[in-house]
Amino acid sequence: MKLDIDEIIDVLSRTPALLKELLNGLSSDWVNSNEGSETWSQYDVVGHLIHGERTDWMTRAKIILNYGERLAFEPFDRFAQFEASKGKTFEELLEEFAVLRKENINTLQELKLTEADLEKTGRHPELGKVTLGELLATWVVHDFDHIGQIARTMAKQYENEVGPWKAYLSILQSRKC
Amino acid sequence: MKLDIDEIIDVLSRTPALLKELLNGLSSDWVNSNEGSETWSQYDVVGHLIHGERTDWMTRAKIILNYGERLAFEPFDRFAQFEASKGKTFEELLEEFAVLRKENINTLQELKLTEADLEKTGRHPELGKVTLGELLATWVVHDFDHIGQIARTMAKQYENEVGPWKAYLSILQSRKC
């Protein structure tokens, strides 16, 4: 599907309210459940999304627009949330994510990006040359990836409760990230 | 995780608003996108969820409570939505699902099910003996299955737009239902 900046903004804007609808006020058993050792709980995932808002998406977009390929992105820390979320309630994390996402969407809108802007290039520390359009598409897919992860993780909490229906529920056969 | 009827009701009650948050007002390109031939679009999935509200979950729960194993469930038609949704807008389907789910949740609450009720048994036409608890757990997991499917289907629309980031996005490697 061809990239459309208004559609990207529309889809990215939906995620905070969607996560609140799915997760706000759930018992801590659900919030802290995961898929086994070295997998993430809902709490961990929202912390990870917060770190992305703070250090990844718009930070990198601005590097592409201001420096092009001359300045490589900082590597993203996939484990930062284990320190950064400490002491925060899950509802605080959901709200923090909503505030940061809104700020980033506002910044993105103010940039009034053109189709030509989406072709501008930057340098990823591992992947090499990438475009601004690829970065924004990845932001969208990354949201869906973690929405899917949360759905899968929550589904698996009832893996032993569904009895013989397990055979019909493909999400229970799907693998961890 | 042990089944708790209040938690089941809580989680099932969230799905209509969550789907509206994710999908309402999206362009028809997004709504009608799928994962390739013989896979379902967002439009198809919501039609399928509607058919479940009409003929599956609470219908079967009442059969278990009223007839036990003496009356087998009717087989569920996984393709009914292709006829039933004809002529309806996607927003109409989302609203129809919300209304039906609310009615079913109200009925479920009125039953005031006990832990002993969850052990009551019925007869599935293919799977044989199942319990009411297994049916309700399956209802929950089935919601998550289709939320995950929608996230995956939407993610895949940008599969070619994410460039080299594809290697990092596990949802793009996951299979169809």
Describe this structure as you would to a colleague:
- The structure is a homodimer of 177-residue chains.
- With 177 residues, the first copy, chain A, is mostly helical.
- Helix content of chain A is 58%, strand content 5%.
- Chain A contains 8 helices and 2 strands; from the N terminus they run H-H-H-H-H-H-H-E-E-H.
- In chain A, strands 1-2 form a two-stranded antiparallel ribbon.
- In chain A, a hairpin with a 3-residue loop joins strand 1 and strand 2.
- In chain A, helix 4 runs antiparallel to helix 8.
- The first copy, chain A, is elongated.
- The two termini of chain A are 25 Å apart.
- The model of chain A has no long low-confidence stretch (mean pLDDT 95).
- Chains A and B meet through helix 1, strand 2 and helix 8 of A and helix 1, strand 2 and helix 8 of B.
